[in-house]
Amino acid sequence: MKVSTLERVGVVVRDLDAAMSQYAKFLGIDSWQVYDADADEVSDLVSRGRRTTGTYRSAVGSTSVGEGLNPLDRPLVPITFELVQPTGGETPFNEYLLTKGPGIAWLTVRLADDSPGRDDVPGALAEHGVELAARWTAGGVPRLFWDTRELLGGFLIEVVTEALPARGETRTIDGAGLRDGEAPLPTQGIHHFGVVVDDVMKLTRNYHDLFGIDVFPISSWRAEYGRLDAPQYWGEPVEHGYFTAVGLCDDFGFEIIQCTYGDSHYNRDFLDHRGPGIHHLFPFITKDQDDWTEKVRGMRELGATLCMGSDLRGGAGEFGYFDTQDELGFVIEGVVRRTAPDPALPGPEFVVDFREEADRG
Question: Taking CA atoms, which of 35, 61, 258, 280 is between 20 and 30 Å from 265?
C-alpha cells in the first residue's frame, strides 16, 4: 500500500477533560469537538471476531500552523489528535489503557489516490497478514482498526480513503490562561514518530508493505564524538546506544528504534514498562540556537524538562525529548540544526532500499 496523509494521532487517556487542558497548555489546541459514544451511539461492535459492547468519549482537535515551509523545506502541516477516554466494555481503547496505560494507541492514515489496494483495503491488508482488531459504527460512521501491533511495534492503524468527520459539540479551552504568559511549543507537522521496538531490521519490511516506504537509512547511535557527542539522561551524562531506521511518507515519517546498550528513556522509562510502541513525536526543528534555548526554557517553565538528549555530529545539531509523557501520553522531540555536519564524520551505516528487491530463492 501507499500512505499519503496522516489524518489523526489516536491517544488513549484516563480523563478526557484533563487531557484536553494539557493539550491546550503544551500544544495550543484550544478548540475541540467532543463526542460521547455511549450505548445508543455505538452499534455492531466486533472485537477479535466476537460481537461485544463498549463505549467511550472522544475529542478531536488540531494544532495551528502558519504559512510557508519548515526548516526542512517541507510544508507546515497541522497535527490532528483524537483523544479517547474508554468508559466501559471491550474496545481496543480500553484494552490499550488496561495493558499499557495512556498513550498513542493508533494512527489514522489515508491512502494515496494511486495506492495499490485502495479499492479493497481489507483485501490489501490481508495480503500482508493484517487481521481486523475491531470494528463498529459510531453515530453512523464506520470505524475499522487493524491489528498491526506485532508488525509495526505496539500500535494499531485505521486506514481511510477520505477524511473522517469530527462529531460532537465544540468545547473551548483557555490554553493561554493555563500557560501564564508562556507560549505553547510551535508545531510544524510530524517529522517522524519514534517507535521503540525489539528488532528494527525485522520490521522495516512491514513499514514498506503497509506505508509504501522504500528507503530506510540505518544508523548506529552511540556515545562517541561525531555520533552522540554528549548524551544525557534525566540531566546526567550517560553511556548508551541505539540502532535506528528512518523512513518517510508524504507528510510524516517514522524513526524505528532498537536499544543496544545502556540506560535511556527508550528502555527504562518506556519499553520496560509498556513494551514496544510509539515513544515520541518529533514536531519541532529550528536552525536558530537562541530560538532553541528559548523553547527549552519555555517548556521547562510549563513543566516539561528535557529527559534525554545530546549534541550530534560534532556539535552540528542537538536533539532533546521534552518530558510530557504523563500530560500528553508521549514525549516530544525538538531539534536544533546549527550547521551542516562535517562530511568526514560517519553517516548512516547502510541503507535498506526495497526498490532493489532480489529473488529470495
Answer: 61
